[in-house]
């Protein structure tokens, strides 16, 4: 697999969400001409994934997408945490005074559009309404049925989501578990909210949690582990408009293999976890950029080991945060409150938390990697 890969190699990317777009634009930057297909005929217009970390901005700078994303996004200077209606902690990202430590809020459709614009500059477009209906491989390549036509490719990158058809077709195990609660999301316009550019985490009684992330103007993305995210907001905040809302189930799973032969999994096709701390898009884009670089550097064999370890770390950390914010037991809730107050009042813990929240490869995350 580590032989020289020709720039004329036929590479198929299945799924034109953020992960597939990132893989396509990075491959195009390296001189490849990938084929990018998507079953959708029209783009999503809601704000499902909204948090972008500094690492992603740096990853997408070479392809030209980062500037537009940075300009369109809302800089989130701090994160306020409330417990049972009372302010419990403030994670002061702004106190780091370093552009390498940032959390940005941006609607997914806007994020995707900046990647599409960059991709078009490389002369690559999306084949919309094109669905993968069958896939098989041999030592020389991959055979894919796209709609009613059978085509041949040398490599396939599956970015086709949690219910990945490619992963299931190739019988790649996806162990894990489903969370019992029905989660919900809403794209809303809010008024009368304190510190409107801050992200908010509301730890509620009975094991419920809600998050509010600004994504431009008075627009916010609300997520909750209850089936009506809008009603999870505290009293006093006025909902001016509900743009979109919906419910979904959450699973915590990771593929046993991120690659098999000439086929690679990236993004939600390879891993999924709760949205409580907003790392899904960032982890998936990291998969895409890493894999594209391996096509350039002829190191495809190392993709699984590197990205599987990264995914394992993020899943473990996300589950720890979810468990702490949704626990119903008195002792655990008391411990969570003590930790929050310590983060709020102890400067070194606040800085540690701020660095970890931006998901940078610095000492804060290395310590957490050691823990997990």
Task: Describe the protein.
With 372 residues, the protein is of the alpha+beta class. Among the domains are: 11-50 and 107-174 and 255-326, FAD/NAD(P)-binding domain (3-Layer(bba) Sandwich); 178-250, Alpha-Beta Plaits (2-Layer Sandwich). Helices cover 33% and strands 30% of the residues. The chain has helices at residues 18-29, 54-60, 66-72, 108-121, 165-169, 280-297, 303-326, 330-345, 347-357, 363-371, and strands at residues 11-14, 35-38, 51-53, 74-75, 79-83, 86-91, 103-105, 126-128, 132-138, 141-146, 149-153, 155-158, 176-191, 199-203, 209-216, 219-224, 238-254, 259-260, 263-265, 271-272. The longest helix has 24 residues, at 303-326.
SSE order and pairing:
Layout: E1 11-14, H1 18-29, E2 35-38, E3 51-53, H2 54-60, H3 66-72, E4 74-75, E5 79-83, E6 86-91, E7 103-105, H4 108-121, E8 126-128, E9 132-138, E10 141-146, E11 149-153, E12 155-158, H5 165-169, E13 176-191, E14 199-203, E15 209-216, E16 219-224, E17 238-254, E18 259-260, E19 263-265, E20 271-272, H6 280-297, H7 303-326, H8 330-345, H9 347-357, H10 363-371
Parallel strand pairs: 1-2, 1-12, 2-8, 5-14, 12-19
Antiparallel strand pairs: 3-7, 4-7, 5-6, 9-10, 10-11, 13-16, 13-17, 14-15, 15-16, 17-20, 18-19
Helix pairs in contact: 1-4, 1-6, 2-3, 2-6, 6-7, 8-9
Which descriptors would you attach to this protein?
about 375 residues; alpha+beta; FAD/NAD(P)-binding domain; Alpha-Beta Plaits; six-stranded mixed β-sheet; about 30% strand; globular
Short synopsis of the structure:
This protein is of the alpha+beta class and 372 residues long. It has helices spanning 18-29, 54-60, 66-72, 108-121, 165-169, 280-297, 303-326, 330-345, 347-357, 363-371; strands spanning 11-14, 35-38, 51-53, 74-75, 79-83, 86-91, 103-105, 126-128, 132-138, 141-146, 149-153, 155-158, 176-191, 199-203, 209-216, 219-224, 238-254, 259-260, 263-265, 271-272.
